[in-house]
Amino acid sequence: MMQAILPEPRPAAVLSAFRRQGTFGLVALVGGGAFLLLSFYPYAQLLIASLRRDGRFTLAHSAGVLSHDYLLRTPLLHSLEVSVASAALATALGTVLAWLAVRSDLLGRRAIAAFVAIPHIVPSFQLASSWIVLFGDAGIVQATTGLQPFAAYGVAPLVAVQTIHLTVLAFLNVAGALGSLDPSLEEAARACGLRRRQVLRRVTLPLMLPSILSGLLLTFAYSMAEFGAPILLAAPAGFGTLTTQIYELSTAPPLQFGEAAVLSLLLGAIALATMLVNLRLLARGSYVTLTGKSSSGEPARLGMLRGPLSLLAWGWLAATAIVPLAALVLISLLESWGRGFGPGNLTLAHYATMLASHTLTHALWNSVVLALGAAALATVIGFVAAYGAVRLGTRWGALLDRMSFINFATPSLVIGIAFLLAFSGPPVNLFGTYWILLFAYFVRYAGLCVRGIGANLRQLSAEMEEAGAACGLRPSRVLAQITLPLLRHSLAAGFLLVFVNAIREISATSLLASQGTETLAFEAFLRYADGDYTVGSAYSVLMVAIALTGSAMIARRSRLAGAGFQSGRSHSRPCPRTTLRLPRSAGSTSSSATGSCSR
Amino acid sequence: MRTGSRLLGVAVSIGVACGLLAAGAAQADESMDVLYAKAKSEGKAVMYTSVPTFILDEWRSLFEAEYPGVKLEYFRSGTGKVLARINAEKTAGQLHGDIVWVADATAYPDFAKQGLLASYKTPEWEHIPFGKDPGGHYVTGRILAGVIFANTKETQDFPASWADLADAKYKGKVAMASAIVSGSTTVMVSGLVHDAGLGWPYFQKLKDNGVLILQDVPDVARSVASGERPLGITLTLYKYQAEYKDSPIKMVFPKEGPILMASPMGLFAKAEHPNAGRLLYRFLLSQKAQEVLSKHGIYPARDDVAAPSGLPPLAEVKKNAIIPDSDWMVANWNDVKSQWRAMFGH
C-alpha cells in the first residue's frame, strides 16, 4: 500500500497542467500547497532546532550525535536489526497468507483479510502490553499453565510483536497484486506441462517479486518509526532504538532537543532512502499483467494439505487477532493486581469509572470527528497527489507523493514536537485548538491514501477517461463521472486506514492535546501515566471497538475485506482485456501492489 | 535572522522584566477576594503538571466550587513531556500555562535562571517548613516518598536496608524504573548513590543480579503487585490507588529510611492568566488542597496537614530518611544520567 508512486516526470508546467483541469487544478494547488506547507514548515523548525543553541548557529548537536555511540551507532544498528527482521518475517507471513487467501481453496479464505488486519488496528503498545501480561513472569500463561514459553522482554518479543502488527501491510500489498495477476500466464505454464509447484516457483513468484519486495520496504519503513512496542518490550532489556532514543532525548531532562532533532532528521533521511530504493526497484520493470481481468481462475487445490494448512493458518490468525484483544479486555476487567485472573477478581467498575468521567463524551466526540476529518483531508490530498503524479505526470504530484511518504515514515512523536515548535506561538498559534491535532494526523497519515489511490489509478487504463473526453465531457465532469467512481474502492480504503491510524494515535496527541481537545487515546494515555492501567485499558477497549466497527462498516461498504479481492475488481474494470502488457516503466507493479490499500 | 533574534531577545528581556515587576508588586499580601475578582475576568488558570489526574480532578472540583467563574485547566503528562512542551513553547515564543508543577526539582533553579518563573512569596509559605527558594521563584508543594514494595504472596523475606536489596539472594527479584525516563527515579538514584553513600557499585550489583528496568515508577508498582518481580523501588502513592486495593503489596521502609523528594511548583513570569494563576497557586498551597494529596498517599508540604493514613508523620520520618541534596543533584544530574545509561542502556 505504501510503495511510492512512480514519477513519470513529464516536464509539464505545474500551472498549465492544473489549469487545464479546472476545479481539480484549484484543489490540487490549494490543497497540495497547504499539505506541503503543513509538512515543510514544522520540519524546517526541526532543522533549525538541530542547528541552534541559545539562539546561535551551531553544529554541536550533530557533532554530539556523531561522537557518541549510544546516541547514534547503537540505536541505529538496533533499529535496523529489528526492522529488517520484522519486515522479513511480516513479508514472508503476509505473502503466504495472501496466496492462501487469494489463490487457494483454504477453508474460510475470504475472512483472512479481516483477521490479519485486526492486530494492526490494535495499537502496537497495546499489543506489547498484552504480550507482557500474557508471557511475563506471573503472567496469565504462567499463572494458568505453570509454563513460560516465551521471554517477556528483549529483541525476540519485540520482533514477534512488530511482525504481528505489520503483517497486514505486506499481506495487502501481495494480495492486491495476486488478485490482478492474469491467470492465463499460469494456465499457459500448466498447459506446457509444468507441475503446480514449478508454476509457483517459475511463474507466480517471479511475477510477484516486485510487490513482495515493495511490501518488505514498506514494513521496514513502518517498523523504523515504531515506538510503542520498542519502549515497552526492548528498552527493559537495555535495547534502545532510534525512536526510544529520540523519546528520551526530547522528553527526559536535561532535554537534549537539538540532538533529538538530528536523530529525527536521520530517520527522515532513512525513510527517503527507503523510498528511493523502492522507486528504483519498481522502475526496474515488472512483469505483472494488469489487464483488469477479474477472476483469478481456478483456486489452487491444497489437496491433502487442505485440512492441516487450514488449521495452521487459522490457529495463527485467531491467536494473533483474538488473544491480544482478549488480554486487553481482561486487564480492563481486573479488580486488583496480584489476585490472579479468576472470576473472583473481575469487575466492571473501571468501565463505570470511565463512563462517569466528565470528559468521556467530549473525548469520544473529539476522537471520532478528528479521525474522520483527518481521513477526509487525507483522501482529498491522496487523490490530488496520485492523480497529479500518475495521470498528469506532474512534478507537483510527485512532490506531494514523496512528502507524504517521508511524513509517514517519521515517528509520531517527532511530528508532535515539530508541530509544537511550528504552531504554538507566533506567527501561527494553533495551540489548544482542534486544528493542531487535525493537521498533525493529516500530515502524518496522508501517505496511506496517496499510495493506495495511486496504485489503483495505475491499474485503471486511461481509455475510459479518454473516451469521456472524446465524447465532449469537460475535464471536471470526467473526473466526477468516470475517474472518481472507478476509484471508489481505494478512496474508501485510504479513508479507512487514515481513520484507524488517527483514532489510535497517542505519541503526538500526548504533546498537542489540551483540555477541551482531549481524545480517547489521550485519556487512555493519561490513565497509563497515572499507573491506572485498568481504567486506561477500558478506554483502549472503547477506542479499539470504535476503530474495528468503523473498519467493518467501511469495509462492507466498499467490499474491502475478504471477498473483495476478486469481486470488487471486476466492477471497476468495464472492458477487461487479456493482452499481456510489458510496461516500459514500473507502474504496473505498484498499482497491483497497492490494490492493497484498496482491498 | 540574527537581527530578528536579537530583537526577540530584547523583547523577551523586556517581557521578563515586566513580569518580574508585576510579580514583585503581587508579593504584597493581596487579599484572596481581590485576587478572585481579577481572576474572574481572566476566566481560567492553566497548570502544566505531572501530578496524577485523579488528584487534579479533585482539585478542580474544589477550586471551581470555591471560585465559581474561574476554571482550573491542566496539561498533565510525565515530567519529561511537560518539560518538552515548555521548551517547545518557549522556543515558539509563547507559554500557555500559568503554573508548572513537576516531580523533577532540579528543573526549577534552571527555570528561575532563565527568567521563566515569577517570584511570588505568599502567606501560605509560612506553613511550609522546607524546600523554599530564597528568591521566591518556587516552593515545595508535595513530598514524594520512595520505598521498597514487596509482594507478600511471593516473598516473606524482605530486605532490611537499601543495601540489602542488591544482595545475591534477591537475584532476579527486583524491579525499578529508568533513571533516564522517570524523574523521581533519577532523584532516588542520586539519593542512593550520593546521600546514602552506596555509590555506583551498588547499581552494578543490582545489574549483575538482573534488576528489571521498567519505564516509570507506576510500572514498578504494577510489576510487584502482579508478582512479575517480588520487590521493587517505587513511590508510596501507588499503594493507595484503587487498583491495588487488597493487592499483596507491603511497603517496606528500609533502615536508612525512605527517600524523600520535594516536588516544587512555580508561577510563570509570563503567565497567560497572571491573576487566576496566582489564585490557583495559593489554592494549591491551602490546607484543603493539601489534604487531597494526603488522601492519595503523598506527603503534603504543609506542616498543619496530617500525613497519609498508614504512614508515619513527616517530622518523624525526616529524622531517618535519605533526603537527596539538591545542589549535588543539579551539579551532577548529567553525570548520573550518563553513568546510568552506560550501565543500563536506557
Q: What descriptive keywords fit this protein?
A:
A: 599 residues, mainly alpha, MetI-like fold, 2 domains, two-stranded antiparallel sheet, two-stranded antiparallel ribbon, 4 strands, disordered C terminus, B: 346 residues, alpha/beta, D-Maltodextrin-Binding Protein, domain 2, 10-stranded mixed sheet, 12 helices, disordered N terminus
Structure description:
- The complex is a heterodimer of chains A (599) and B (346).
- By secondary structure, chain A is an all-alpha fold.
- Chain A folds into two domains: 13-49 and 348-572, MetI-like fold; 59-339, MetI-like fold, CATH 1.10.3720.10.
- Helix content of chain A is 71%, strand content 1%.
- Chain A has 27 helices and four strands.
- Chain A has helices spanning 14-19, 23-50, 60-67, 73-103, 112-121, 124-135, 140-145, 155-179, 183-191, 196-224, 228-234, 242-251, 257-283, 306-333, 349-356, 360-391, 395-408, 412-423, 434-459, 463-470, 475-486, 488-503, 509-512, 520-529, 533-557, 564-572, 587-598; strands at residues 52-53, 56-57, 424-425, 428-429.
- In chain A, the strands form two sheets. A two-stranded antiparallel sheet of chain A has the order 1-2.
- In chain A, α16 (360-391) runs antiparallel to α17 (395-408) and α17 (395-408) packs across α19 (434-459).
- Chain A is globular and about 65 Å long.
- The model of chain A is unreliable at 1-14, 286-294 and 560-599 (pLDDT under 50).
- With 346 residues, chain B is of the alpha/beta class.
- Chain B folds into two domains: 2-141 and 263-305, D-Maltodextrin-Binding Protein, domain 2, CATH 3.40.190; 144-260 and 319-341, D-Maltodextrin-Binding Protein, domain 2, CATH 3.40.190.10.
- In chain B, strands 1, 2, 3, 4, 5, 6, 7, 8, 9 and 10 form a ten-stranded mixed β-sheet that branches.
- In chain B, α2 packs across α9.
- The longest helix of chain B is centred in the N-terminal third of the chain and has 25 residues, at 2-26.
- The radius of gyration of chain B is 21 Å and the shape is globular.
- Residues 1-28 of chain B have low confidence and may be disordered.
- At the A-B interface, α12, α18, β3, α24 and α25 of A face β2, α4, β6, α8 and α12 of B.
